[in-house]
C-alpha cells in the first residue's frame, strides 16, 4: 500500500473557503477504486495548517487519483488559497497493524 | 521507518482541555531520540475527532515512546477525555519520497 501525507498551509482568511471546497474533493476521492482513505485534518497547534492523510492500495491508485478530473479541477482552487507550495510525501508501506494501548 | 496513525475521538466538551494537555506531550515526544515527527491534527469534517500523525526511525523508537514516563503519565488524562477507545495503527514504511504536484 501507499501512505501519503500532503501538508497544506492555507491563507488564514481563506481557511473556511478551503475546508468547504475540499469536502467535495474528499467525498469524490473516497469513492475512487484503490483509495483506502483520504481525510483532511487541521493542525491543533497551527490553525490553517492542514494535512491530508491519504492511503492507497498501490502506486497505480495514487496515480489515478492525481490524474483524475476532479483532482485536476481542484488544483486552481488550491493554488488560490495556499500560503505556500504543498508538501506531498509518499511512503511505500505495509498494511497497518492495530496496536493496543498500555 | 514506522508510520503510526492514532485516531482519538474526544468528548466535545473536553476538546480544549485535550488539545492543551496534548501540546505538552507532543513537545516532549518530539525531543525523543528516534521520533521523526509527532503531530496532532483535528478532522476538518468532524470536530473533536483527532489523528496523531507519528513517524519513528524504527520499532524500538516507537516502543521507547509507548513505554516512556511522559506517555504513560498522559494515559489517565487521555482516558478521561476520550469518547471512544483510541485506534492506533502502525505501518512499517519506507522513507518518504516527495511528489511534485501537477
Alpha-beta classification of chain A: alpha+beta
What sequence of helices (H) and strands (E) makes up the elements of chain A? Answer: EHEEHHEE
**What distance separates the N and C termini of chain A?**
28 Å
Radius of gyration of chain A: 14 Å
Sheet of most strands of chain A: 4 strands, antiparallel
Arrangement of strands in the largest sheet of chain A? 2-3-1-4
The assigned CATH architecture of chain A is: 2-Layer Sandwich
What is the CATH C level class of chain A, in words? Alpha Beta
Number of helices of chain A: 3
Task: Tell me the β content of chain A.
Answer: 25-35%
Helix content of chain A: 25-40%
What's the count of strands of chain A?
5
Name the largest protein-protein interface in this structure: A-B, 39 and 38 residues
What's the average pLDDT of chain A?
A: 96
Fill in the CATH topology of chain A.
Alpha-Beta Plaits
Please tell me the total number of domains of chain A.
1
